[in-house]
From TrEMBL:
Transmembrane segments: none annotated. Belongs to the UPF0065 (bug) family. This is Argininosuccinate lyase. Keywords: Lyase, Signal. InterPro entries: BUG (IPR005064), Bug_dom1 (IPR042100). Residues 1-28 form the signal peptide. GO terms for molecular function: lyase activity. The keyword Signal applies.
Amino acid sequence: MNKLMSAAAVAAAVAAGAVLPGMPAAQAAGYPDKPVTMIVPFVPGGSSDITARSVTPGLTKILGQTFVVENKPGANSAIGAQALARSTPDGYTMMVGSIGTFAINEALYKNLSYNPSKDFEYLTQAVRNPNVLVAAPTFPASTVAELVEYAKKNPGKVSYASSGTGSSDHLSAVLFRQRTQSTGVDVPYRGGGAAIADLIGGQVNVSFQNLGAVQTHIKAGKLKALAITGDARAADLPDVPTLAEAGIKDMVVYSWQGFAVPKGTPAPIVQQLSKALQTALRDPQTEKTLQGLGFEVVANTPQQFTAFQQAEVKRWKDVIQKANIQLE
């Protein structure tokens, strides 16, 4: 008997639901055979929403089905995350979440309605971008060393603006003060835009803001950039040192976005979705678009993302507990 199957025989076998050699069971079963819902637990226009809408055309092309973005904002992403955790684990509901959704919230909230470490199967860390330590143009310090010196000479007087309690920019400030043994006052806003506006106006002193949100203000001279929280200098701001170069060790911080499905989703579907996402993210035009918005594409494996997520949970749990921060 000829070991090679004809194209017609392959098509017939797939249609019948047979599992062919080298073919994941999920593919043999015809997944996906209907539209897939992609939850974004934030309002439209944010980083998670941008990430979701950037990859859906590629996913549709690769997998042959429509991916419908559904925004479910509220409770610092807990509403959308809870919806994912309670959905049927069949590959037809997935979510794009942030560092807050998948790592920070676990330690931050006393009564969280979902568990990031137990309720999800992780597909891929999609993108990441560093924060930038920026200062108001009128603030006396123009370097990290000057900021630390000023903060120590004026204990409790340096104001740190953030987009909200528990955000990556807020916790970056908390970690910075822990690393430098300095003090300051946290000033949380309802979103980064308001924090940046008051920073430019001099109502607050400093902030750790997302690179993409402040780089135009830095180039225009409206904000002073003191350091980058990434592991290397930003290509768009080559003269701004990393925190490590500025003398602050063990403080590499990235804001990031990733994809997940409910716990219990079959492994072949997890692998199929992950590979499709990695391919869509690495599409030259998609990657170029994301880079233009300040994102660095990661596109790693489920195993790599899961290990990273667990490390991030531990890291931020330590920071949060040391600072005695907790929300209901």
